[in-house]
Design a protein that fits this description.
The protein is an alpha+beta fold. It contains 18 helices and seven strands. It has helices at 10-22, 27-33, 38-43, 51-65, 70-74, 85-91, 96-106, 139-157, 178-184, 201-206, 213-230, 235-246, 254-260, 265-274, 279-297, 302-308, 314-325, 329-340, and strands at 7-9, 48-50, 114-120, 124-131, 163-167, 188-189, 195-200. A hairpin with a 3-residue loop joins β3 and β4 (124-131). It is globular and about 60 Å long.
Length: 341
């Protein structure tokens, strides 16, 4: 069975259901509203849920609970075993920095709907979640993911004060930020350029865990096997997601992207060559797919689409689009929409 291209592990939906049940609400009608079945999720927790379906579920949850901070609540019902081999890999790490690195590298096992970066600075480490253009994701999902990481860290280390500060792209709720600052026990800033958890580097390294190198190696192999089936470990997909996350800020270069993955340009170029592609080809692919999305799924003007795809002006976008489809963006939009009407 083909997996949805952008998806989340079904166990994540089960954690939401548990949080709903604990709050006295029946999750079954909400699941049915978006085409999900609780029994099927329970029987196949390793299966995948399409992100459009998952986001619709989160939206219904927020509507019913009237709680914009419900993602924080969900973290109380997520256990490492929900993430299967990745959860066991986390438990067998040597310290919390290693845990953060592993989650960043293998996050596609949980969800491949965002671009995740582990940011290394001299005195701190950031765990950043960048949305992908055209891929719908709930602000509650980001809250829940961050809250789950912090909850795991507290369980593993026995320490509560772990995070220096939190940056969220979402707007500040009308109720204020008290629930977020209380949960994370640090400053939480809304309407930021990206979503990021910031940790003190030295503190993460000091947070030693029992660790088991043999168990870690065995579970890492299982995680990689799972992700290979999803085609989520190849460099083509990783670079594609990275480009898609930043393209609206301007055209990224090979050097920019290599830096994100802590690689040299030469190494990244070689990795892509080994997969039969190049940085320029991946960039073209992302632009082509995003162009089609904006033209057919939105009413965004062609000029604005050009800027969102990192083109300096609409004429450059028009030339590229005619190379891809042998017609202008306007002609393509008109033709496809007339066929579908």
């Amino acid at each position: 069975m083909n997996q949805p291209s952008y998806s989340t592990i079904a166990a994540w939906a089960l954690a939401i259901c548990k949080a709903l049940q604990e709050s006295g609400r029946d999750p079954v009608p909400l699941l049915q509203d978006v085409g999900l079945n609780l029994q099927e999720l329970e029987q196949h927790p390793d299966s995948r849920v399409a992100i459009a379906t998952m986001t619709a579920f989160w939206d219904r949850v927020e509507q019913i609970t009237a709680n914009p901070a419900f993602g924080l609540e969900v973290s109380r019902y997520v256990q490492p075993m929900h993430f299967r081999a990745l959860g066991l890999l986390m438990i067998s790490c040597q310290n919390m920095q290693q845990v953060i690195e592993k989650i960043g590298r293998y996050h596609a096992m949980i969800s491949n709907t965002v671009n995740i970066r582990v940011i290394h600075q001299p005195h701190r480490i950031g765990f950043a979640i960048d949305p992908l253009a055209g891929v719908p994701i709930s602000a509650l999902a980001v809250d829940g993911f961050f809250a789950t990481i912090v909850t795991f860290a507290r369980q593993l280390t026995g320490q509560n004060l772990l995070v220096q500060n939190v940056e969220l792209m979402r707007s500040l709720p009308a109720t204020g930020n008290e629930r977020w600052s209380t949960f994370f026990q640090c400053p939480v800033n809304f309407q930021q350029a990206t979503n990021c958890l910031w940790f003190e580097r030295a503190q993460l390294i000091k947070m030693a865990l029992p660790g088991d190198s043999q168990l870690a190696a065995a579970n890492e192999a299982l995680v990689e096997q799972y992700l290979q089936k999803m085609n989520a470990l190849n460099w083509h997909e990783r670079i594609k997601n990275s480009i898609q996350a930043v393209l609206e800020q301007g055209e990224p270069t090979l050097a920019d992207t290599a830096q994100v993955f802590n690689l040299s340009e030469r190494t990244l170029r070689r990795y892509l060559q080994q997969e039969g592609t190049s940085f320029r080809q991946v960039l073209e692919e992302v632009r082509r797919e995003m162009a089609v999305h904006y033209l057919l799924q939105t009413a965004v003007p062609v000029t604005d689409i050009a800027l969102r795809l990192g083109f300096s002006d609409s004429s450059n976008f028009n030339r590229a689009f005619q190379r891809w489809f042998e017609q202008t963006p306007g002609q393509y939009r008109k033709e496809k929409k007339s066929v579908g009407s």
